[in-house]
Structures are given as structure tokens and as C-alpha cells.
């Protein structure tokens, strides 16, 4: 048993597949198992092969009845009946090696066998199924590739537009380059001036803050000293209370001195507190000054950005004005073009109407030509059937004549042998007859000479008798 790379189908499966996937209409309805297997009908099997070739290679029906252009034949009408079979065999011989069936022969078209046709059709059906599956995958890949290419083209177009916009934004027009340079120079000078002012004010504030911090440290030191002296004075007061004498004058004097010292201490304390509060206010004001400086710096930066934006806006405005003027000019051109185009459109509409009339006529002619071609194809098909029947009858007659020729050769050989024998017998008889003829001729010549001599004698006697008289 031969090794195959495809499963062998049963005849029922093959017939059902042919009805559902290969044939259509009346061909599928009228197909029977006996038409293909057992004692197959050649026209049905040829029709199945033709439909398969039409499905796989897209070969049209009229191509099977065409004579090759590169072949020079004196009388192509003789080959009309054999052409479809020959073309079918050529195309099937090209198809079946693709289906892993290498041993297709002309006898499989003219005198098909059941087992071989099952094997051929199994290979073809396996290849057709595989082709359909791969075709779906290929179409999906083609659609995905098409969508990917469209996205790629869209992205490339968007990228080009973005590059053009960036170039437009980055490039400054020649008219505004001098202004932009002056603005950038002024902005840089303003930034340098602001930075110098900010640094100078910052250094001055730092010096003031350091002085205030030193003053606060001194005032706190003095406060601490005063607190220490107050504590020592309170201790002395308590000690003096224990050592107070009864004299009221000394007590009064001492109390007055104490009151004066207390007043002085209160005054100095109040002064220190006032200085402390002033320093504290200054320290509290310092971050607000820093914030104001930062805000001023941010304002300057915003002002620089606003200047740049103003320059870009002015350039865009001028660009838009130029575009507007160009658009107006183009609009006027378009209006003139529109008038001319309307005239052209009217002329083209007239031409289209005439062309439509011509196309309808051509379509009618083409349909008539198609009908004539189909009628001709039907006639050719009928002729093909008649010629095929004639060819089969001629083949039978040729076989019969060959058999008769062989019999005639045998009879001729026998008759030749007989003729040789008759020839030999006749030759011997002719030789005998020839000898007898020679003898008779000789005897006739001798008798003729005797008669001539007698006649001469008679003539002499007659002559002598006449002369004497």
C-alpha cells in the first residue's frame, strides 16, 4: 500500500463534500455516487475536475476549449473534441503534485479507475480544505497589516505636522528677529539688574539682621544682669528688714533710695522690653521682606515670559494677517476658478451624459456579444460532444480496421504463398509452351520457305508462259 500524507475519504464523504462545497445548483442536485465511482460518467468526472480547477486556479470554462497560441496546427478543427481533455489533463497534472499525488496520467481522464479517482479526490479535498484555512489566516493578516499601515501613515502624518509646528514655533521670522534679539537683550539686562538689586538688598538685610541679633543678645544679657541684681537686692532687702533700726528717718531715706532704684530698674526694664519688641518686629518683618523680594522676582520672571508670549503673539498675529491677505487673494482666485470650473462642470456633465449614452450602448452591445459568445460556447460544447462521439466511433473503426488489416495481412501472406506456387507452375508451363512455340515457329518457317519456293516457281512459270505467248 502506498504511503500518503493525507487521509483517504470514503466515496459518500467525497460526494457530500462535492455537493456542498464544489458544485452548485442542478449540478449538485443531480450528482450521484454512481456518476463518479464504479462505472463513472466521463463528462461528470471531467466537470468535477473543471470546477475544482476553477475554484483553485480561477481557470474559466472557455480556456479548456482554446488552442494554445504558441502551437502552429494546420487544421485546428480536427482537435476541437480532444482539446478539452488535453487541457484538463495539463491543468490536473500541474495541480495534483501540489496535492501530494505525483502519478496522474492521461488514462485517469480517459479511462478512470475507482481506487485511483478516490485517491485523487481525497488529495484534492485535503488540499482545498488546507487552502481555505490558510486563506482565512492570510486575509486576517492582510487586514491587520492594512490597518497597521494606515495607523503608521496617520502617525507619520501627525509626526510631520508636529515637526512642522515645532519648526514654525522655533523659527523666528526674519522681520521680527531684530525685535526678538532686542527684547532678549533687554530681558537679560533686566534680569541682571534685578539680581544685583536683590543681592544688594539681601546683603543689607543680612547685615541689619546680624546687628539686630547682636543688639538683642546684648539686651538679653543686660536683662539677665538686671534680674540677677534684682534678686540680690531682694535678698539684701530681706536681710536689711531683719536689721532695721527703730529710727524712722533712716528707714524713710532707705525706702526712698530703694524706690528710686526700683523706678530706675523699671525704666531700664521697660526700655529693654521696648527694644526687644522692636527687634522682634524687625525679625518678623524680615521673612515678609524676603517673600516680597521673591514675589518681585517671580513677577519679573512672569514679565519676561509675558514679553516672550507677547512677541510670539505679535508674530502669530502678523503671520495670521499675512495668511488672511493670502487667503483673500486665494479666495478671489478661487472665485474666478469656480466660475471656470462651473463652466467646465457643465461641459463635463454634457460629456458625461453623452458618455453614459455611449456606455449604455456599449453595455447592450457587450451583453449581446456575451449572449452570442455563450451561444457559440454552447454550440462548441455540442460540437465537442458530437466530435467526441465521432472520435470514439473513429477509434472503434480504427481498431476494427487494424484488426481487418491484420487479417488481410495474414490472408495476403497466404495468398502470396499461393501466388508464388501458381507463379512457379505458370512459369514452368510458360517455358514448356515457349519451347513448343519455338518448335512450331521453326516448323512454320520451314513450311513458309517451302511455300515461298513453290510460289516463286509458280510465278516463274507464269512469267515464262506470258513471254512465250
Automatic annotation (TrEMBL):
Key words, A-Z: Cell cycle, Cell division, Centromere, Chromosome, Coiled coil, Kinetochore, Mitosis, Nucleus
One Pfam assignment: Nuf2
The Kinetochore protein Nuf2 N-terminal domain, residue ranges: 4-144
A cellular-component GO term for this protein: nucleus
InterPro entries: Kinetochore_Nuf2_N, Nuf2_N_sf
Transmembrane segments: none
Subcellular location: Chromosome, Centromere, Kinetochore; Nucleus
Primary site of residence: nucleus
Superkingdom of origin: Eukaryota
Entry's Gene Ontology molecular function annotations: protein-containing complex binding
Coiled coil segments of this chain: 138-282, 310-337, 398-425
Protein's GO biological process: attachment of mitotic spindle microtubules to kinetochore; cell division; kinetochore organization; meiotic chromosome segregation; mitotic spindle organization
Described purpose of this protein according to its UniProt entry: Acts as a component of the essential kinetochore-associated NDC80 complex, which is required for chromosome segregation and spindle checkpoint activity. Required for kinetochore integrity and the organization of stable microtubule binding sites in the outer plate of the kinetochore. The NDC80 complex synergistically enhances the affinity of the SKA1 complex for microtubules and may allow the NDC80 complex to track depolymerizing microtubules.
Family assignment from sequence similarity: Belongs to the NUF2 family.
Protein name as annotated: Kinetochore protein NUF2
Amino acid at each position: 500500500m502506498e504511503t500518503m500524507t493525507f487521509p483517504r475519504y470514503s466515496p459518500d464523504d467525497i460526494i457530500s463534500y462535492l455537493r456542498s462545497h464544489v458544485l452548485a445548483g442542478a449540478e449538485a442536485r443531480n450528482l450521484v455516487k454512481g456518476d463518479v465511482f464504479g462505472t463513472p460518467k466521463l463528462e461528470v468526472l471531467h466537470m468535477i475536475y473543471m470546477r475544482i480547477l476553477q475554484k483553485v486556479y480561477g481557470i474559466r470554462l472557455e480556456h479548456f476549449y482554446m488552442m494554445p497560441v504558441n502551437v502552429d496546427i494546420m487544421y485546428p478543427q480536427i482537435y476541437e473534441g480532444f482539446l478539452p481533455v488535453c487541457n484538463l489533463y495539463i491543468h490536473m497534472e500541474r495541480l495534483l503534485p501540489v496535492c501530494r499525488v505525483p502519478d496522474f496520467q492521461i488514462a485517469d481522464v480517459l479511462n478512470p479507475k475507482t481506487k485511483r479517482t478516490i485517491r485523487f479526490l481525497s488529495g484534492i479535498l485535503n488540499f482545498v480544505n488546507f487552502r481555505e484555512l490558510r486563506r482565512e489566516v492570510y486575509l486576517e493578516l492582510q487586514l491587520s497589516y492594512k490597518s497597521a499601515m494606515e495607523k503608521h501613515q496617520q502617525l507619520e502624518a501627525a509626526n510631520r505636522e508636529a515637526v512642522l509646528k515645532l519648526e514654525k514655533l522655533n523659527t523666528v521670522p526674519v522681520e521680527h528677529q531684530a525685535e526678538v534679539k532686542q527684547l532678549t537683550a533687554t530681558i537679560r539686562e533686566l534680569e541682571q539688574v534685578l539680581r544685583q538689586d536683590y543681592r544688594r538688598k539681601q546683603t543689607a538685610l543680612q547685615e541689619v539682621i546680624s546687628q539686630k541679633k547682636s543688639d538683642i543678645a546684648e539686651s538679653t544679657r543686660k536683662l539677665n544682669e538686671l534680674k540677677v541684681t534684682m534678686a540680690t537686692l531682694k535678698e539684701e532687702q530681706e536681710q536689711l528688714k531683719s536689721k532695721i533700726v527703730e529710727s524712722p528717718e533712716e528707714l524713710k531715706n532707705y525706702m526712698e533710695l530703694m524706690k528710686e532704684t526700683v523706678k530706675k530698674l523699671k525704666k531700664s526694664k521697660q526700655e529693654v522690653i521696648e527694644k526687644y519688641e522692636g527687634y522682634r518686629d524687625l525679625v518678623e518683618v524680615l521673612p515678609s521682606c524676603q517673600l516680597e523680594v521673591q514675589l518681585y522676582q517671580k513677577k519679573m520672571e512672569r514679565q519676561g515670559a509675558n514679553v516672550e508670549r507677547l512677541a510670539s503673539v505679535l508674530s502669530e498675529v502678523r503671520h495670521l494677517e499675512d495668511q488672511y491677505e493670502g487667503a483673500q487673494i486665494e479666495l478671489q482666485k478661487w472665485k474666478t476658478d469656480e466660475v471656470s470650473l462651473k463652466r467646465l462642470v457643465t461641459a463635463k456633465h454634457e460629456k458625461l451624459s453623452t458618455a453614459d449614452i455611449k456606455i449604455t450602448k456599449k453595455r447592450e452591445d457587450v451583453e449581446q456579444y456575451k449572449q452570442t459568445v455563450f451561444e457559440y460556447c454552447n454550440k462548441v460544447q455540442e460540437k465537442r460532444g458530437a466530435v467526441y462521439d465521432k472520435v470514439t466511433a473513429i477509434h472503434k473503426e480504427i481498431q476494427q480496421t487494424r484488426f481487418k488489416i491484420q487479417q488481410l495481412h495474414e490472408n495476403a501472406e497466404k495468398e502470396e504463398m499461393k501466388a508464388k506456387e501458381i507463379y512457379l507452375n505458370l512459369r514452368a508451363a510458360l517455358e514448356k509452351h515457349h519451347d513448343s512455340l519455338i518448335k512450331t515457329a521453326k516448323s512454320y518457317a520451314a513450311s513458309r520457305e517451302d511455300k515461298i519456293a513453290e510460289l516463286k516457281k509458280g510465278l516463274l512459270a507464269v512469267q515464262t508462259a506470258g513471254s512465250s505467248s
